[in-house]
Amino acid sequence: RGQQLTEAIRLNQVGFYPLAPKVAVVVGTVVGKFFITTPDRKTTVFTGQLGPQRNDALAGQQTRIADFSGCKTVGTFVIWIPSLGFSHSFQIRPGVHEGVARASLKGFYYQRTATPLPPTYAGQWSRPLGHPDNQVLVHGSAASAQRPTGTLISAPRGWYDAGDYNKYVVNSGITLGTLLSLYEDFPAYTTQLNVQIPESKNAIPDLLDESLWNLRWLLAMQDPADGGVYHKLTNAKFDGMVMPDQVSTPRYVVQKSTAATLDFAAVMAQASRIFRKFNQPLPGLADSCLQASTKAWEWAQQHPTVYYQQEALNKQFQPAISTGAYGDQDVQDEFVWAAAELYATTKQENYYKAVQLFPGDKTPLPTWNQVRTLAYYTLARFRSELTPLAQKDLGQLRQGLITLADNLTAGATTRAYQTVMGKTAADFNWGSSSNAANQGIALLQAYQLTGDKKYALAALTNLDYLLGRNATGYCFVTGTGAKSPQHPHHRLSEADGVLAPVPGLLVGGPNPGRQDGCQYTSSLPATTYADDVCSYASNEIAINWNAPLVYLAGALEALQVQ
Ligand code: 9MR
């Protein structure tokens, strides 16, 4: 007994920093001692006692904590409980999450459209060019005097949004905002991050080169005539589970929307200040971005309520569009984000004054349709450079971010899994993994503001969650850890004939909504997860989920929190 692997011990399957807290969770009724041993169980480096029984109502589990924070020995180990078995192996060492930071950034490279992925960079996931998008039709909903229905435009590059092959501006907005913010928050660390992409040898950090792949596409989504931005570039219907070079279904740009235009304005403003420092390798880019941003901002001023409503649109135009809607019907937060980014870049107070920047006392966790707090991250980042008008609000800004972090951490240490993620059932919706990652970012913002280490350590608990310390026992990142998704709802992984899924991609995670109608073994919030290609509601991947993972892993590596 006890000489076999047990799935009952849940832990970060990648590992731990030597001086940081280290926690595993044991599901079931076992009590007594646990041992940290070498994988052959011959050498014990730490002995501990399982904690008191805890109950996890969201998972329907009884658990005990194995706290081995006192174990500071560098090496590869397992947790061994003689009456139960041993855990997946993990490492204790400095820099232990560097691989996750790199893999999750590299994940974006695999999502590139309009370019072949040669074996040099893509290994066994190499593939021919897909979706050139140099002949995209203007859909009836997007027609204008200069670009009537059926006009061909070119909008190549960009990333596939997710498991599907479409490109959505709204979702690209928060994704790029998050990646670019990682660069702004940790320039030294991210500059040396090499992920072996075709641009790795140029003078621009890989994080920015990869972001540029999508940014250049985004620039082409703006109608040069009026500054408005098309909501998405899409097929009429989702493609089948085939490789991208095997399909040639027509591609469309559809209706301009206020949300897309403001997200575009925000990202372009941010990109402009970042690429200003790279004027040498990228002459004119910063100016183009700022010009694009202000033009988009002006369009939104004139069209403040143009929502993307797919069903209504389908009553009016052919062909009907049935791909992802990202149909945000409230753009107050997009106005706040765009205003803040334009202000931070230009320091012109007219942007700061243009909208109510603090419309409520709640500071919402970012997600694709709620971007207000991204504005606060940016204002906080530049807190020492604000003009007097914005400085007046600094107290409120700080308080909002700290309150968000305090609300997130409240009760985490008494929870069954001792993670920030999983406070209530509300954490488990479509793309729940991104909630964990975005909570981590919010906590790191509070850490940056206050210097209080408890926030950084709280953020680390959510990286632990994503990498295996959760009620499903999965490490939610493909190609990472011992037990990770093998069958993501991801066309590239499903259709390529390669057994292993494309690596470095974060799956959506538990989602009791079960909108896909697939088979699940549980309907409880924390465990409604199926590693099944059918399960687009729990096992798809998406760029807006990967970006906060890159941020969380990258920032924790930069900080070497312990
Ligand atoms: O992440 C999106 C989630 O919040 C929505 O509830 C869901 C249904 O509208 O759509 C998700 O986004 C999907 C998008 O619409 C199309 N590409 C795949 C995305 C991830 O599932």
Automatic annotation (TrEMBL):
Residues 100-552 form the Glycoside hydrolase family domain. It catalyses: Endohydrolysis of (1->4)-beta-D-glucosidic linkages in cellulose, lichenin and cereal beta-D-glucans. Residues 6-83 form the Cellulase Ig-like domain. The active site is at 489, 531, 540. Keywords: Carbohydrate metabolism, Cellulose degradation, Glycosidase, Hydrolase, Polysaccharide degradation, Signal. Its EC number is 3.2.1.4. Transmembrane segments: none annotated. PROSITE patterns: GH9_2, GH9_3. The keyword 4Fe-4S does not apply. Belongs to the glycosyl hydrolase 9 (cellulase E) family. It comes from Hymenobacter cavernae. This is Endoglucanase. It holds the Pfam family CelD_N. InterPro entries: 6-hairpin_glycosidase_sf (IPR008928), 6hp_glycosidase-like_sf (IPR012341), Cellulase_Ig-like (IPR004197), Glyco_hydro_9 (IPR001701), Glyco_hydro_9_Asp/Glu_AS (IPR033126), Glyco_hydro_9_His_AS (IPR018221), Ig-like_fold (IPR013783), Ig_E-set (IPR014756). The keyword Hydrolase applies.
